[in-house]
TrEMBL record:
The keyword Protein transport does not apply. This is Mannose-binding lectin 1. One of its GO terms (molecular function) is carbohydrate binding. The keyword Hydrolase does not apply. Residues 31-150 form the C-type lectin domain. Keywords: Disulfide bond, Lectin, Signal. It comes from Penaeus vannamei (Whiteleg shrimp). InterPro entries: C-type_lectin-like, C-type_lectin-like/link_sf, C-type_lectin/snaclec_domain, C-type_lectin_CS, CTDL_fold. Residues 1-19 form the signal peptide.
Length: 154
């Protein structure tokens, strides 16, 4: 390995270590014009919605592949395999909406998802899942998960 590559990999490792200590402890981490927070505890989707408000944000929308990649990295570093995001069709079945009222311009469901039809009609809330490479899955809203909040960076 060249000295330059070695230095680059050392810096990347250091950045990851810094991210792991900071982003896993319910701290707002800024990315672009927003900040994201990973909860330390588990909650149902509805309790997560309320908790994000209490923390000064909203249950997170994801508006681009870059944001999805960033959150994928955060969940990986923190060893979290499933996390609620702010997408639901609990209000009108099969019409997914962001809890923070952002327009739905980026969709990232995993293969075969959302499955919320037929036997799974009550899977109305959306999570990121490690086994889908942090693409999205619809899940029963009452299941308890860690969750991602979002706010604008002032
Ligand atoms: C959250 O739930 C997961 C999966 O059931 C569990 O392993 C973890 O210990 C829980 N975390 C907290 C903080 O309760």
């Amino acid at each position: 390995m060249s000295a330059l590559r070695w230095l680059a990999s050392l810096l990347a490792t250091a950045a990851l270590a810094a991210a792991s200590t900071e982003s896993c402890s319910e701290t707002w981490i800024s990315f672009g014009e927003s900040s994201f927070l990973l909860s330390s505890g588990n909650a149902s989707w509805f309790d997560a919605f309320t908790e994000c408000h209490r923390l000064g944000g909203k249950l997170a929308s994801i508006q681009s592949q870059r944001e999805n990649d960033f959150l994928h990295g955060m969940l990986t570093v923190c060893g979290v395999d499933k996390a609620w995001i702010g997408l639901t069709d609990a209000f009108i079945n099969t019409v997914f909406k962001w809890a923070d009222k952002e327009d739905l311009t980026f969709l990232n469901f995993g293969p075969g998802e959302p499955s919320g039809s037929g036997d799974h009609a009550s899977e109305d809330c959306v999570e990121m899942r490690q086994d889908l490479e942090y693409q999205w899955n619809d899940e029963y809203c009452m299941v308890k998960r860690r969750f991602l909040c979002r706010k604008s960076t002032e």
